[in-house]
Amino acid sequence: MRVNMRVNGRPYEADDVWEGESLLYVLRERLGLPGSKNACEQGECGSCTVRLDGVPVCACLVAAGQAEGREVVTVEGLADHARPSEPSRPGQVAPLAPVQQAFIDAGAVQCGFCTPGLLVAADELLERDPDPSDADIREALSGNLCRCTGYEKILDAVRLAAARTGEAV
Amino acid sequence: MDFLRPAGWEEALAAKAEHPTAVPIAGGTDVMVEINFDHRRPEYLLDLTRVAELAEWEATDRTVRLGAGVPYTRIMEELRTELPGLALAAHTVGSPQIRNRGTVGGNLGAASPAGDAHPALLAAGAEVEAASVRGTRRIPVEEFFTGVKRHALEPDELIRAVHIRRADGPQQFSKVGTRNAMVIAVCAFAVALHPRTRTVRTGIGSAAPTPVRAWEAEEFLGAALEEGGFWDSGAPLDPSAVRRFAELCAGACRPIDDVRGTAAYRRHAVGVMARRTLGWTWEAYRGGEGRTAQCA
Amino acid sequence: MAADRTASAPTTVTQATGAIRGTVGESTLRPDGTLKVTGEFAYSSDLWHEDMLWGFTLRSPYAHAAIRSIDTAGALALPGVYAVMTHADLPAGTHYGLEIRDQPVLAGDRVRYHGEPVAIVAADHPETARRAAARIAVEYEELPLVVDEATATAPDAPLLHPGRRDHHASHVPHPNIVHRQPIRRGDVAAARARADVVVRRDYEVGMQDQAFLGPESGLAVPAEDGGVDLYIATQWLHVDRDQLAPVLGLPADKVRLTLSGVGGAFGAREDLSMQAHACLLALSTGRPVKIVYNRYESFFGHVHRHPAKLTYEHGATRDGTLLYVQCRIVLDGGAYASSSPAVVGNAASLSIGPYVVENVDVEAIALYSNNPPCGAMRGFGAVQACFAYEAQMDAVAAELGLDPVEFRRRNAMSQGATMPTGQLVDSPAPVAELLRRVKALPMPPERAWEAAGGPVDVRALPGGLSNTTHGEAVVRGVGYAVGIKNVGFSEGFDDYSTARIRLEVIGGEPVALVHTAMAEVGQGGVTVHAQIARTELGVDRVTLHPADTRVGSAGSTSASRQTYMTGGAVKHACEAVRAEVLRRGRERFGASHPAWAEPERLRLEDGKVVTDGGEVIGDLAGILGDGAVDLEREFRHRPTEPFDRRTGQGFGHVQYSFCAHRAVVEVDTELGLVKVVELAAAQDVGKAINPLSVVGQIHGGSTQGLGLAVMEEIVVSPDGARVRNPSFTDYLIPTILDTPAMPVEVLELADDNAPYGLRGVGEAPTLSSTPAVVAAIRAATGLPLRRVPVRPEHLTGG
């Protein structure tokens, strides 16, 4: 079947999609957007977290056909999503979203395989709640497994992004 | 495999009538796992996410008609007052991402004994609104589960909504997992006090081939409360009655040993959860929650 | 708009911005950080190539069976299928293995574990490949199972590998024992007679999985020269190549490996998984072939941590002096050898922990069985032993009425101590100090779930979001543990690393290019290499060449060795480059300043040649001009020797590392649910090359230890030796709500034998975390808890 959707603000079309494919497979293998990761394909790790019509979901559990006509934001579009007023043009490097920069600065990235999903989830949390408590951060990220960091630096990163965003306002 | 995407409810029913083997998919949190891991290759996938009315709920005096496609996150956020037990259960489902997609309709359709919504529906009192091109019927949730991952729907039927009694007293939900988040129930327990009818209802998950009520425990406690005038007095419960209630709840289990836990542990844990959740609800009742309802 | 696709190139990690500058000892940000947060970093599963096919593996449903026949006709007949291969189709070598080549590339006449690869398929879509695999008809005949020591050594036990000719075969007591290592020192019988207190107990450690997040994957591209290029996530490119070449029937130089992005490793990528399969299919079809395991398959695709049964007897005097330790450690290696011999060596030599004990009698063995193959996982051998010896230390302390930390302190080793192997510990071993530090940390607040004053916050309670307690039956417990781990490859292995450094001037600025084959698996080796190059060469800009087999081996990213070894090689090569720069400088400018004649007084700093007095006497741009200095060097640690097969004596290990933990837990004693409230660690790292990532390693290792303590286990059915929980639904690893605050104290006591005095960091925190958490649960519940992971039913008696 054919599937149309908007990803990171741009229209995409995929042809010859097998009906059993997930949104994750379509993004990674058909649309050239492998940033969302395929760590468990059963909704138990959060590495494929994307926003579907604004809502964080596991892309591995969305059937490709269910994404027809929907709006998807992936880690590749996070920087633009954070600054919708100044989207980057092709060829131009978008500045990182605050949460992306904070993950680098806080040492929250090791192997990085969980990072894209965590970034999408953390970014959505900070959009809802610019100043979350530690317990709120833990709850919001409890669907994203990380095997390298023990999560301490990830908490630091979300706190840092919140603090920086707070200062900037 | 064919992908059917009806735009409205009538179209969905027509599609299901035409293709009774079609597998309905909403949040995808069960169906897609089975497809990803090659456990299932349905001939047709019937996407229900475009049927707008499934994602709506409406409340009347006595019930909430919860559309089959309302995700758990919205239940937690929007129905905490009307359906406190289900809202608590919704909060224990998977992860935020799963709660954003998963639905009570999907939980019922999968009919897993471990479904988190089921004990809360049993305790609150609910009927499943099943529909087909032939018409609509309501199935009491107690009669909906017919076996492990089996339910009472006919091949041409879809779940339109669940009619759940609005809470008239305190409700609680508790679930044991071996992790502090994102975990499938080893076992679960729900209790609801119904001051209006002066009854107590329960629901047990993951401790029998289907979700079950602890009938004997409900009857025992209902009688004890009635005879002792507790509904009116709001007096503290007799510890021996609480203990007996917990024993009867544990006794209602027919659990198995599996990779998630032993049968003996499940029975034990259901007893502990029954005692604790009854304590919490009764304390809330004594504190005034629901005590006005029964006077009305 | 159609998707624009180009073939994915391996990621070249370059210094992209000016924000990531750091020298040795400074917290430095990852050079690959930006690519990893934007989703552009190319992991092995992200690779794509025009015309590529998808590979898929058919695996055995039985743990032990004879293969009577395989019929692939149905699979080959399916449109879109390009190749189906079985054992009969292998072109050359049929087996591989890290130390013992006992593992079939595809099963021959027999499968030895549940999930063993039997056939492989290449097709135009993953679903086509799966459907084709389902059409392969395999006729099995089930065989009797070997599942534990009793069934492995029974008189009529089936032999897993009859006719063994490996170098352990002659000294093992039974052919189903991979390797056996005794350690004997002093006189245990005499010591036992003098002991006031004797504690003898059995312990058990379940099978843990590395559970890295990036499943096994890679892309094999057939080359015009008849060779193959493999883009792969691995821990050791050269050893992959050396196992692959004989299987493919190619010379080593035609099997070219390039590291692609690696989504964690923790030992699970030490062995081959899909490497040979992808290359075989690519060479057979003439098309690029990509294989990506899903999570289910990943549980069958790599080795796990050896489950262990351990029996320990400790004897001590009334004043708290350990007199002797006797122990027996039985590790289940599963169907193939993998790293079992080295795991046995570690378990035996580190079996008594970081304590001084004069009389020791140890036996460690690894079994062959029909259970899943076990091999490398972070801290291997030492993790299993640490759980048991630390439980014993608590038990003996309790018998003596001593505080457990005080009892450990009285017996703690320090520099100058002798290991049970006779090896002198010749660098700092601050065991007592590490324990003192974790004990001195402030305790986390009590009853945090009530802190806000409002309703109970269940997220701070055992059971978390599941709402199981509002404080009922919750009891706090505190536990301590300390461990010892060897760093680097031991027992006489010729362990070395290679680095190639090119220094040249680009755009007026000196740039160092660092080329190694080190597998960056997340640990931060790339950051360390850039820091070392900046420090040694006085340059700002460092470019890291992709890791591949075009440069010499870097050894494995395991055994806590890469900063020591490949870091050491980068340092060593930089020193050679610096010497050459100074030689060229002396040649050209020697007459201008007398200091040129004394290169040992000169250093490179900010692109300049500077004397020890701080005087600038030249600059790199002037010395190098258009030329470059390009040198490759190997680095070796000091040699070790094998352990004596009878007594276990020998200078077996390169270096030791130590970490101590204090765990604070809250246990719902009625439901058996555990919340780890805080997990504090203190570790000596010799020198923190990058303090930020040192702490990250300690956090990560501690958390994996926590997982083993309370939730992580691959469950194998005893009747069928089948894996019962190969998924993230039922193999649970800690979430952010299971992981507590983790204060870390870092000590830097230099080891004079090591580059910069550093000590390997990665594994030690994984050891003591598990026993500390379990000790805390024992303290809260009063239960003996001899097995990990501790499950709820172990705490409730259910």
TrEMBL record, chain A:
Pfam (any one): Fer2_2
PROSITE patterns reported for this sequence: 2FE2S_FER_1 (PS00197), 2FE2S_FER_2 (PS51085)
InterPro entries, A to Z: 2Fe-2S-bd, 2Fe-2S-bd_dom_sf, 2Fe-2S_ferredoxin-like_sf, 2Fe-2S_ferredoxin-type, 2Fe2S_fd_BS, Beta-grasp_dom_sf, Diverse_Oxidoreductases
2Fe-2S ferredoxin-type domain segment(s): 1-78
CDD domains, alphabetized: fer2
Keywords: 2Fe-2S, Iron, Iron-sulfur, Metal-binding, Oxidoreductase
The protein's name: (2Fe-2S)-binding protein
Organism of derivation: Streptomyces endocoffeicus
Automatic annotation (TrEMBL), chain B:
Keyword Oxidoreductase recorded: yes
Gene3D superfamilies in UniProt: 3.30.465.10, CO dehydrogenase flavoprotein, C-terminal domain, Uridine Diphospho-n-acetylenolpyruvylglucosamine Reductase, domain 2
Pfam families: CO_deh_flav_C, FAD_binding_5
The keyword Flavoprotein is annotated on this UniProt entry: yes
Keywords: FAD, Flavoprotein, Oxidoreductase
Domain of life: Bacteria
Domain FAD-binding PCMH-type: 1-169
Protein name in the entry: Xanthine dehydrogenase family protein subunit M
Species of the source: Streptomyces endocoffeicus
From TrEMBL, chain C:
Keyword Oxidoreductase: yes
Matches recorded under Gene3D superfamilies: Aldehyde oxidase/xanthine dehydrogenase, a/b hammerhead, Aldehyde oxidase/xanthine dehydrogenase, molybdopterin binding domain
Transmembrane segments: none
Pfam families xref list: Ald_Xan_dh_C (PF01315), MoCoBD_1 (PF02738), MoCoBD_2 (PF20256)
Molecular function as annotated in GO: xanthine dehydrogenase activity
Residue ranges constituting the Aldehyde oxidase/xanthine dehydrogenase a/b hammerhead domain according to the UniProt record: 38-144
Enzyme class: oxidoreductase
Record keywords, A-Z: Oxidoreductase
Assigned EC number: 1.17.1.4
Keyword match Disulfide bond: no
Superkingdom, natural source: Bacteria
UniProt xrefs under PANTHER family: XANTHINE DEHYDROGENASE, XANTHINE DEHYDROGENASE SUBUNIT D-RELATED
Name this protein carries in UniProt: Xanthine dehydrogenase subunit D
Gene assigned in the entry: pucD
